[in-house]
Amino acid sequence: MDIQLIKNEAVTTIRFIGRLDTPASADAAKAVEPALQDAAGTIVLDCSEMTYISSSGLRIFLTLRKAAAAAGGKVIVQHISPDIRQVFMITGFLNLFEIED
After folding, report:
1. DSSP letter at 64?
2. For a 10 Å CB count at each end of the chain, is N or C smaller?
3. CATH architecture assigned to 2-100
């Protein structure tokens, strides 16, 4: 799993590349920590190159959403694959996040 964090004024984009599985989620949680400091703005989660997400990965997304909600910001999830969309649908995450294709 590779994670790229890009900050542009009030928008922080996090690109997830590869599998966000349980072994990768500890490093991923550390990699997204700077976005928690900017939670008052918009956090964009770019999933165009993410091939898998586990429950540990979903927890990272939920942590970002909670931080943004508490700070008055928002989280947008972009470019999820059909397989990941299915996981979001089964877990109820489609209702928790703003999803953009």
Report:
1. H
2. C
3. 2-Layer Sandwich (3.30)
